[in-house]
Amino acid sequence: MDAETVNPMNLLDTLNRPLRDLRISVTDRCNFRCVYCMPKEVFGPDYQFLHRDMVLTFEEITRLARIFAGFGVRKIRLTGGEPLVRKDFPKLVEMLAQIPDLDLTMTTNGALLPRFADELKKAGLKRVTVSLDSLDNEIFKAMNDVDFPVEKVLEGMDAAKAAGLEPIKVNMVVKRGVNESSILPMARFFREKRYILRFIEYMDVGHTNGWRMDDVVPAKEIVNIIGREFPLEPADPNYRGEVAERWSYKDGGGEIGVIASVTQAFCRDCHRARLSAEGKLYTCLFAVKGHDFRELLRNGASDEEISHKIESVWSKRADRYSEIRSENTVPLPKVEMSHIGG
Length: 342
Ligand code: SAM
Ligand code: SF4
Ligand code: SF4
Prior knowledge:
The protein is an alpha/beta fold and 342 residues long. The chain has a domain at 3-168 and 269-340: Aldolase class I (TIM Barrel). Helix content is 30%, strand content 16%. Strand 10 and strand 11 form a beta hairpin. The protein binds S-adenosylmethionine and iron/sulfur cluster (SF4) (2 copies). S-adenosylmethionine binds at residues 30, 36-37, 79-80, 82, 107-109, 131, 171, 173, 200, 202-203, 205, 209, 337-338, 341-342.
């Protein structure tokens, strides 16, 4: 594909999917050790996190984000690791917020939101998604594995609401036999609060979490559990390629979402690329290999050269891992979630 002749907005991959959504991991570090993401046995005291020099600077991230926006990216989600542990993170938000027509959001574990919510809003962040896997402290602490209490995450959500970072979405990863019992209490609680609760099927990301199909609670089952207490009806997606399938409470009590990445793959509408903290571009959450942009940036490449590389990577993209997932694909080497940010 030739940079001179292709309108960047029309860039399509081999399955005719445009590039509309970019997730940027700003750090591979985290203050939690969720058992399904950064298990302590692997991410313990000896784990080698990226050295500071290896992580993209705010200027590098912003430059890349601008170039991606030129290809039609309209949504940027900042993630990690835990984005709020990156030093001066609101400064990055402020820089990215200068890019016109961008839906700028972040996913966080909420622990540091009470400290940063106001500053983030002022810097130009539009809204937040906060992860919380249970309202039961025993279950939640066993999942975050750093003894972090539910109340502090709820404080973080309330701080985000008070700052106007709305609508607030809550992500709950459901793992069979671990937090299934929390599905209904979470639904009841967040229905009252009017935060949009989204249930995520536990995925075989990376290779450190020991994933098994038996650990997955299918989205259909989750919808049935909630629907028995609060009747639900399907709602239209907000836009094509929306990851969460929306369900509305029939009595007008708001909505929930289910992200059925395992049982109902949505690869054919996947318009998402992921940039790791060290500047590698991944065209799928389950990709084995990233494409290095840090080297280009640090070797003085022009915007045109960087654009050319984006075109070359995206136009060859053929990923559809979730559609072809099987017992044979699960053990394949894959990048860790904490590197590319979910
Ligand atoms: N630290 C932030 C947080 O937890 O919100 C952002 C990064 S985290 C990797 C992004 C999202 O991925 C979180 O909602 C987390 O629950 C989810 N996640 C992590 N590992 C997962 C897995 N194996 N399956 C499904 N979702 C997962
Ligand atoms: Fe940290 Fe988020 Fe992974 Fe939990 S899910 S370990 S909070 S990056
Ligand atoms: Fe997109 Fe890959 Fe997930 Fe399919 S498996 S929806 S291509 S990230």
